[in-house]
Amino acid sequence: MPRVFSGIQPTGAPHIGNYFGAMQNYVTLGEQFGKNSLYCVVDLHAITNPAASDPRELAGRTFDMAVANFAAGLDPAKVVFFAQSHVPEHQELSWVFTCLTPVGELERMTQYKDKAAQYESVPSGLLMYPVLMAADILLYKADTVPVGDDQTQHIELTREIARKFNHHYGETFPEPKAVYNQGAVRVPGVDGHGKMSKSKGEASTIGILEPLDSIWQKLRAAPTDPQRVRRTDPGNPEVCLIFDYHKLFSDLDTIQLVDVGCRTAGIGCVDCKKKLMEGVTAHLEPLQERAEGLRADPDYVRDALRQGAQEARAIAAPIMDEVRHKVGFLKL
């Protein structure tokens, strides 16, 4: 049976991009592969971003990411769900891989170049980010990695690192393949500027645990088709992010209604947004109620993370022992 691994960063509140792009896929794969599905809140990766690694907030965000995944339907009794920092083998394997990976390979990573341009002094952790990601995956000999298409280059590097280790030290790791959630839409930011991302701040995101009143305020102010200057102007829903959100939250009848209504000026943008909010409420309100129940029982969440870390280490420890032996470290 395939072994699935994926990680999600706790660098901000979980949003609908995370939900439709990753978390729903986690649930589906978890039902299919059970304990061969490993999901990790990658808090070690989070601290590569100085703007998102406030030590006063990191633990709470890690906890909230677990709550959000459980509320979205992921059952920690059926999968292995844990926090990255609770399994120290991640760092150890990352160092071994660091010693195999040329700097030039890391400097050509598109995400590194994009993020490094934001800094006057680039943190070295940002450069090493994909090496740690490779360790996350290969530590469990995972062969199936559900990711967004923006991670394709990192998966290619992971495969290269696996090949390089196998060449130097003997056949050890599989070459994992990326699995994309074909049903997922690339969710735009609510400000209309590119993909929804936690790194852009809360003004760009719709949090799945965000109060519904707050979500409505964001939707009400969200941009629509710029050609619809007046209520009587026909529009093009295909260039409107509100229509993109309808595809996520609304039923087929509503989608068809707003599609035709926009093109014929039969519905105004405010009414279109109100219909969207009905779908958002129907979708997120039950999830938020489950999240409140989980927050009211923090011991359950912490126990689930503790159990997940134990299960993860039970898989990781013998693989790390194999690596130590093949690399030639002294065994006492």
From TrEMBL:
Locations listed in the record: Cytoplasm
InterPro entries per record: aa-tRNA-synth_I_CS, aa-tRNA-synth_Ic, Rossmann-like_a/b/a_fold, Trp-tRNA-ligase, Trp-tRNA-ligase_bac-type, Trp-tRNA_synthetase
GO CC terms of this entry: cytosol
An example Gene Ontology biological process: tryptophanyl-tRNA aminoacylation
Record's catalysed reaction(s): tRNA(Trp) + L-tryptophan + ATP = L-tryptophyl-tRNA(Trp) + AMP + diphosphate + H(+)
Keywords: Aminoacyl-tRNA synthetase, ATP-binding, Cytoplasm, Ligase, Nucleotide-binding, Protein biosynthesis
SUPFAM superfamilies: Nucleotidylyl transferase
Pfam families listed in its UniProt record: tRNA-synt_1b
The keyword Cytoplasm is annotated on this UniProt entry: yes
Protein's job: Catalyzes the attachment of tryptophan to tRNA(Trp).
Family from the record: Belongs to the class-I aminoacyl-tRNA synthetase family.
Subunit structure and binding partners: Homodimer.
Name of this protein: Tryptophan--tRNA ligase
